[in-house]
Design brief:
Shape: globular
Radius of gyration: 14 Å
Structural class: alpha+beta
Strand order of the largest sheet: 1-3-4
Order of helices and strands: EEHHHEEEEEEE
Helix content: 10-25%
Largest sheet: 3 strands, mixed
C-alpha cells in the first residue's frame, strides 16, 4: 500500500491540463470500473442512477486495504487524523459521485502540478458529506474535502 500525501485542493481547475498517460497494462484497459464510471456520468440527470453506478471503492478507507487499479491511496492534508482514502485517477476515469455528491478532479500531488485525482468536495459552512465521511478543511476558506471518518 502506498500512501501519497495530498498536497493541493484545486476545485474548478481545468482537467484539460492533465497529462495524458499511456497504459500498457491490459488489465486496466479492460477494467469494468472504467465502463461503470462513464455510465455514471451519462446518467448524471438522475442522482439515483449516478449513486447506483458509482464505484464502491472510490473514496473508501484504504488503511490496510489496498485500492484497486486506477486508484491511489491518498492521505488527507497535514495534521488531519482521518484515514487515507482511495482516490480515482482523473486521467483514467471520470470522477464518480457518491450518495448525491459529485466527484471532481480536484487533487494535485504537488505544487504547480495539475489536478490528477478525484475528490468529493464539501462546503465548510454546512459540513455535509456522504454517510461515513466528514468534511475536512483542505486549504480553501469555504471548500473542504469529504474524507472517511476517524
Amino acid at each position: 500500500m502506498r500512501n501519497t500525501l495530498l498536497l493541493l485542493l484545486c476545485f474548478g481547475c481545468d482537467k484539460a491540463d492533465l497529462p495524458v498517460e499511456t497504459d500498457t497494462d491490459t488489465d486496466t484497459d479492460t477494467d469494468s470500473d472504467a465502463d461503470t464510471d462513464s455510465d455514471a456520468d451519462a446518467d448524471t440527470d438522475a442522482d439515483a442512477d449516478t449513486d447506483a453506478d458509482a464505484d464502491p471503492d472510490a473514496y473508501r478507507n484504504c488503511q490496510g486495504n489496498p485500492c484497486p487499479n486506477g486508484m491511489e491511496c491518498l492521505a488527507g492534508p497535514p495534521g488531519v487524523p482521518n484515514p487515507p482514502f482511495c482516490s480515482p485517477d482523473c486521467a483514467k476515469v471520470e470522477c464518480p459521485g457518491l450518495e448525491g455528491f459529485e466527484g471532481q478532479c480536484a487533487l494535485s500531488l504537488g505544487p504547480g502540478l495539475p489536478p490528477s485525482n478525484c475528490a468529493l468536495p464539501c462546503q465548510l459552512a454546512d459540513l455535509l458529506c456522504p454517510t461515513g465521511m466528514e468534511c475536512v478543511a483542505a486549504g480553501d476558506p469555504t471548500l473542504g474535502i469529504c474524507l472517511p471518518e476517524v
